[in-house]
């Protein structure tokens, strides 16, 4: 989508702006501002695009720069333009509805924004060679129709092998390849959940999983995680299962998003036993399992304690490799995989063969790629922790020993107001309430360490500055950032 409009393009869109009705009664700058508002109102000029520099537009329209300056000022005052010194001006709507036309504000909409809303790394250098190698392999598949509802066999074998290496014997028939972990979760819910059914989740939890549950009209109950390790309170968690007997529980035991907690082996074992005893099926999200830091030893997979097909595991390539690959999977019993595949053909038929081949090539180099990711994440986490300790010493954080995020306890219930203020200085944040259900968690903020060190340090500096301004402004402002992943 368009992220910037050039002077000549805008001039073309504006057309006969100086001859609009009522024009004679208003000065040039007001007519120009009115014409831009008109373009925004009828959708011809999208929201969130950067307007041309004043001089460029003045040249394109053959008017004085002062007129453009005054028009931009009026647009700012009416809430149709946001400007940042040295960075430019973006279209918006009054009331801070800065959503793009799609309803989503994607990371690419604003390249100057330091995006701490998305907890995912840029692609590793191995990705491009893997894509080229995958293209070389493609001819083997071109003779067939290309629909593989459970995934191509090479990839299912590679994923099954990785589980076996983690101590969980798995056959390729137990694996279904999906278009990302989110897709995997949605498919599992289609099969395992009926509208109005009860689901236990952690609080805080992953917002898009909560969205998937809300879309299926789940009745959600929560287990509150502590800030300190281990996070889960075993007695409370198992007690909630026994009392509520939910149909499902969705949990992230391996470097939980957002807290980074790691569930101990003993609790995994008790959890699976209790779930079976009370009739709860477990959906275990292993998105971050490949990313232990500091030499942390990851306990056996939760599914390794399962003797009754109570545990369905979802995972994917997005966190250790690249989100843009859109490769995830489900590990379940072979009959469950067959049922999932039957449900899937009514959704998207199958995942792209080429992307699956790329995944095969990446998984073949897993140890080297993952080791480099771990080193990168460790350095970035430490830089983020250092910057926080220096600039925001009143915030409390537990050092995560894996995953890609830390969960900070702030010095007040200010998370949404802080996110709103940070966006004004070019930092997008995912405030605490996005990770809960009921508008609570205002004292918390998730901070990913997936960006380069310089960006993280810069972001913390800007956050610290607006934190100070919040006290002085004395009025919280609320706005939801859109895309969190
Ligand atoms: C816990 C969790 N589950 C699922 C996802 C979605 O991952 P994918 O990109 O594989 O759909 C994410 C991404 O942030 C996540 O953190």
From TrEMBL:
Keyword field contains Transcription: yes
InterPro entries, alphabetized: Aminotransferase_I/II_large (IPR004839), HTH_trans_reg/aminotransferase (IPR051446), PyrdxlP-dep_Trfase (IPR015424), PyrdxlP-dep_Trfase_major (IPR015421), PyrdxlP-dep_Trfase_small (IPR015422), Tscrpt_reg_HTH_GntR (IPR000524), WH-like_DNA-bd_sf (IPR036388), WH_DNA-bd_sf (IPR036390)
Gene Ontology molecular-function annotations: transaminase activity
HTH gntR-type domain ranges (all copies): 26-94
The entry's keywords: Aminotransferase, DNA-binding, Pyridoxal phosphate, Transcription, Transcription regulation, Transferase
Pfam families: Aminotran_1_2, GntR
Superkingdom of source: Bacteria
Keyword Lyase: no
Family recorded in the similarity comment: In the C-terminal section; belongs to the class-I pyridoxal-phosphate-dependent aminotransferase family.
Name of the protein: PLP-dependent aminotransferase family protein
